[in-house]
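Thread: Newbie trying to understand structure tokens

Hi all, I'm a second-year student working on a class project, and my supervisor (Dr. K.) asked me to get a predicted structure for one chain before our next meeting. I've only ever worked with sequences, so writing a 3D structure as a token string is new to me. If someone could post the tokens and maybe explain what I'm looking at, I'd be very grateful. Here's the chain:
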Amino acid sequence: MGKTGLLNKEISRRQLLIGSAFLGGSAALVGGRMFYEPHAIEIERIELTLPRLRRETVIAFLTDLHFCKERPDNLQHIAELTMDLEPDLILMGGDYIEDRKYSQSLLELADALSADLGCFAVMGNWEHWIEIDPAEMRRSLADVGVGLLVNESRTLGDAGLWLMGADDPSTGSESYNGLAPFPDDHAVLMLAHAPAILRSLSAKRLATDLILCGHTHGGQVRLPLLRPPFLPFGSDGYVSGLYESDGMRMYVSRGVGTSILPIRFMCRPEITRIRLLPG
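---
Reply by user tm_fold:
Sure, no problem. This is what the structure looks like when written as tokens:
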């Protein structure tokens, strides 16, 4: 073999080594990020103006905790992040536990939360899947200062805010007629688990000022410029962030926990600070 052939062979070997090192490093980086991101909770901040709201109200919104151990390592961290937002109102959007034996983890977190206008929760699909009785859950949460809303409404202090809590629409529960009529002199806020609530409300012509929900986990694993490869039933194509449809605004949270696999990629968990201003 001539010198040119030996040189080309050496260059090819070097390119192969460089390429292998690059691919190995990229795989390690991606893998490391997948397991790092679930622990890197972000605080998302949005500001909205609502008609008929009487005073500024700060909401801390957390959803999709998916506790699956007796006492999660990040339980105290979640509580501290939430309370550091200095909320007037704390809302919890369902899918808290993946087995009844982890109920104490939810209650311990709920007990660490407090706000002047109260703390309220709705049920998610997991609460239905593991067959938690709503009445039992209501009593347990009430003992730690959290009100469970199952197709119920509350007026909140002097804020001029009418809060509705819907049962999870992804389970087929759409008996929301008991929530109407809405008061004309209050801003109307809907707390639900899944974005499918928007379709349900539109079909029943029940217009609200703002809907808060989760369920999608933001896709949990994302790739640049592409839609998530998987969204759960009840997402209705919504992924995360603020949407407007049929004259209603809806915010979809990426949630705090993970489901099926304990990984996230380009989709960090979130707790949301929502600053509502009078319109």
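A couple of things are worth pointing out once you decode it. Residues 15-31 have pLDDT under 50 and may be disordered. The domain at 42-278 is CATH 3.60.21.10 (Purple Acid Phosphatase; chain A, domain 2). Feel free to ask follow-ups in this thread.
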